[in-house]
Design goal:
This protein has 5 helices and 14 strands. It starts with a helix and ends in an 8-residue tail after the last strand. Strands 3, 6, 7, 8, 9, 10, 11, 12, 13 and 14 form a 10-stranded antiparallel beta sheet that branches. 51% of the residues lie in helices and 24% in strands. It has 2 domains: 74-202; 212-326, Glucose Permease (Domain IIA) (Distorted Sandwich). It has 330 residues and is an alpha+beta fold.
Length: 330
């Protein structure tokens, strides 16, 4: 009985052992030299290994995808960083270029003001608003405003930055062309203004001395000889030693005593103009001296053929005697 019971009891154990052996897998490895090696593992182990392999493959796939995505993002970031660096250089260039143009416009405005003042001082123009000056001021405002706006450019969406910079570069190019045109016009105007002022300063235009006109330009009876004679100048009576002033800018070409004219000063002004100051009591300049309009060159006297203190004043243009009244302010 005991033997049966044992046998019955032990029978399931044997079946379990047999069953367990049936669920194991054995791999036999045969080497070329004849030696063999067996590997045995259970189904559970096999399933676990397969599950581990699947999980590893999935993890590897996720890692590779993440790596590729990260690489693309890094590449895009590097590209955007390079673009941002280039745009930063463009912005800096634009700001410096616009500041340079604003400075050019400031210089142009200064030249325009100096030119206008020069013409105003000479009486060649009247005080009024200058169209060129207004244009220069407006362009200067544009340049300065655009230059300062460079700080706000950096806050624009990077995707729109290229378009904005392209527009600004075109605007800067157009403004640069306008400034160049203004500078050319201003240079031409300045040259013409300097020429006009130079001519105006050389043209006799003020009274050499204030007093009574005792003899005009033209035919008259000579006060000493009594004969009819053409008077080539203008006689202005004035007290003895009254200062005589140069009527235009020029260079003294004669300062001394002349027969009939007494103490005489002759000034060459340029543009064919010369003036003559005669019967002086004394002379205040020397030959070769540069004089400006209004400078005292001599003093009223009665030297030479004269009946009393006065100034005999002549204006000569291209060697021909002119009527001084045509050049004196009314």
């Amino acid at each position: 009985m005991l033997a049966r019971i044992f046998s019955r009891k032990s029978s399931p154990a044997r079946k379990t052992a047999v069953s367990s052996r049936e669920r194991r897998f054995t791999f036999l490895l045969v080497y070329s030299h004849g030696k063999t090696h067996s590997i045995s593992f259970s189904l559970t182990t096999l399933l676990s290994a397969l599950a581990l392999v699947c999980i590893s493959m999935v993890a590897l796939g996720v890692f590779i995808h993440s790596y590729i995505q990260t690489a693309k993002e890094n590449e895009e970031l590097n590209y955007l960083y390079d673009v941002a660096g280039i745009q930063e250089m463009q912005i800096q260039y634009l700001q410096e270029h616009l500041q340079e143009m604003a400075e050019r416009l400031r210089q142009a405005e200064l030249i325009e003001k100096e030119t206008r003042y020069m013409l105003l001082e000479e009486g060649l123009i009247h005080e009024e608003a200058s169209e060129l000056g207004a244009m220069i001021a407006s362009r200067q405002l544009v340049a300065e405003t655009t230059s300062r706006s460079g700080r706000s450019i950096r806050r624009i969406d990077p995707r729109d930055m290229g378009m904005v910079l392209s527009s600004l570069e075109q605007a800067a190019f157009d403004l640069d062309g306008e400034i160049a045109s203004l500078e050319e016009r201003l240079s031409d105007l300045r040259s013409k203004a300097e020429e006009a002022v130079s001519y105006s300063r050389a043209r006799p235009s003020i009274w050499p001395v204030y007093g009574n006109i005792t003899s005009v330009y033209g035919w008259r009876r000579h006060p000493i000889t009594g004969r009819s004679q053409f008077h080539e100048g203008l006689d202005i009576g004035a007290p003895y030693r009254t200062p005589i002033r140069a009527t235009a800018d020029g260079t003294v070409v004669l300062a001394g005593y002349q027969a009939g004219y007494g103490y005489t000063v002759r000034i060459r002004h340029g543009y064919g103009f010369e003036t003559l100051y005669c019967h002086c009591s004394s002379i205040n300049v020397r030959v070769g001296q540069k004089v400006s309009r209004g400078d005292v060159i001599a003093y009223v006297g009665s030297s030479g053929s004269s009946t009393g203190p006065h100034l005999h004043y002549e204006v000569i243009k291209n060697g021909s005697k002119q009527n001084p009244m045509d050049y004196l302010p009314k």
